[in-house]
Amino acid sequence: MNDLRILLFEDGNVDRLFPITIGRPAFAIRCAGHRLIDWIERMEAPMAAVVRRHLRGIQEMQYPQLKPSLPASATPLLLINARLVPCRTNLQALAALVADRRFGAIRSDGELAAAFLPRTPEIAPPAGNDRFDPIVALRDDLEHSSPLATPLKLFEYPHDVIRYNLDCIGDNLEDLISRPGLTEVRDGVFVAEGAVLGDYGTTDTSKGPIVIDRGATIGPYCFLRGPVYIGPNSRVIEHSAIKDAVCVGHTVKLGGEVEASVIEPFTNKQHHGFLGHSYLGSWINWGAGTSNSDLKNTYGEVKMEYRGRKVSTGMQFVGCIIGDYSKTAINTGIFTGKTVGVCSMVYGFVTTNVPSYVNYARSFGQVTEMAPEVMVSTQQRMFARRQQQPTRADVQLMHDMFELTRHERQLAGEPLSL
Predict the structure, then answer these.
(1) 27 vs 21, 212, 226, 228, CA distance in Å?
(2) Whose CA is closest to 166, among 260, 293, 39, 279?
(3) Which of 127, 173, 253, 320 is least surrounded by Cβ atoms within 10 Å, i.e. has the fewest?
C-alpha cells in the first residue's frame, strides 16, 4: 500500500511478558502458527519499529525490512502495539480500519492497542535508555483522534501466549491453508514443498488441520492430532505424539509427547518426556526425560507468579514458560505454572520460578549465578551444531540480558552463591 505507513511500537508493559520478551521484540512472539510481523508484512506497506534499546542491533540484523524511524509525511500512519496477538480477527480488524479510512485510536483495557492517523509525524527512537512512548511522542495526534470501538486482543502476561495459541490456532491455520504452496496429502493434512510425512503414522484432523511446512520431516510411527503447525526444516522424531494446538517454529527438533505448546526456532526437545500447555523460547535444550506438569493435583485454576505478584490465569491447564537459551538436565521435573528465565541451567525438581542466568539445582540445595561469558561460550557451541554463526549483536545481547535481569536474582529469595 503506497498510501500507508506502519509503525510497530513496544510500550512500557512489554516487560510484563518477561521472560519471553527479554531477548526478542514483542512483535516476534510466535503464537498459533504466526508472529505479528508475519501478518503485518501482508499489508505490503513501508514499516518501521521502535523497540527497546538493547534490541535495536537484533532488529537491524534479523528484521532489515523494519526501518528504525519514519520521516514526517502526509501519508496516513497505522500505529500498532507490538503486543497485539497475531490472530486473524485482529488483523482483519486492522485491515478494515485502513480500507474504510476510519481514523482514530483503539484501546484495550485502557492500553493503546492501535491507532490510524491521517498523517505520519516524525518518528525516531529516543536517545539513551528512554522508551518510545506514543502517548507522549504523538500526544497531539492522538488527542485529536476519535476513540474506536474495534475490539483488539493484546498479550498481557506470558501465559496469554498459551491461551491465545489454543484460541486462535485453528482459525490461523485455516487462513494458512487457503494460501498457495500447500498440498493436501491426507484428509486435513497439508504439506509444503520438501516436507516428508513418515510411514506408519496416524493423523487425526477432526478438531483442526495439520500443516507441515517446507523441508520439515515427520518420522515413522508418529501420532499427530490437529490443529498442529510444524515450521520449516523442523524434525519430529519417530514414535512422537504431537497434538491439540502445537505450534513449532523453524529448525526445531521435536520428540516425545507434546500438547498445546508453542516452541520457537532452534530449540531441541527431541527426547522422550512430556511438554504440555507451555512456551519454549529459542535455543533451548530440553534434556532427555524432562517433563512438566500442566495441571494441579486439585484440578483448580492455575495462578502464576510474576515478579512476586500472583496473577490468576483463569485456566485449568498451564505448564511452564521457558526463556531463550535455557537448558534442562536429564529427568528434570518442572512443576505447574513455573517460569524459567533466559540463559539458565535447571536440574532436578523445579518447584519455584527460576531467575535468569543461574544454575538452578534447588532440590540439591544449590542455586548459583552464572556469568554471561559462560553462556556466550555455550551458545557458540550450540550455534555451531546448527550451522549458525553468532554475530556481534548476539554476543552483546547476552551481556545486555544479564544486566537487564540482575533484579531477578536479587529478588528471587534464593541463597545465590556468586
Answers:
(1) 9, 23, 25, 22
(2) 260
(3) 127
Pull the grid cell for residue 314.
483463569
Closest C-alpha among 104, 185, 114 to residue 146:
104
Per mean pLDDT, which of 70-74, 120-124, 170-174, 370-374 is the most reliable?
170-174
Q: And the C-alpha cell for 402?
A: 544479564
Superfamily of 159-366 according to CATH: Hexapeptide repeat proteins (2.160.10.10)
Residues 6 or more apart in contact with residue 245 via CB below 8 angstroms: 32, 165, 166, 169, 170, 208, 227, 228, 259, 260, 261
User: Distance from CA of residue 320 to its chain's centroid?
Assistant: 13
Q: Where are the domains of the chain?
A: 5-148, 159-366
Rounded CA-CA distance 30/33 in Å is 7
Burial annotation 160-172 (CB, 10 A radius, 16+ → b, else e): bbbbbbbbbbbbb
Phi, psi values for residue 295, rounded to 5°: -145, 130
Mean pLDDT of the chain: 93
The residues, ordered by sequence, that sit 6+ positions from 153 with a Cβ below 8 Å of its Cβ are: 84, 85, 87, 89, 90, 108, 164
Degrees, nearest 5: CA angle 43-47-51: 130
pLDDT of residue 363: 78
Neighbours of 89 (CB within 10 A): 14
User: Which residue is associated with the grid cell 512472539?
Assistant: 29
Average pLDDT over residues 330-355: 96
Q: Cα(118)–Cα(364) distance, rounded to whole angstroms?
A: 60
217: pLDDT strictly greater than 80: yes
**Helix axes of 159-177 and 88-99: crossing angle, nearest 10 degrees:** 70
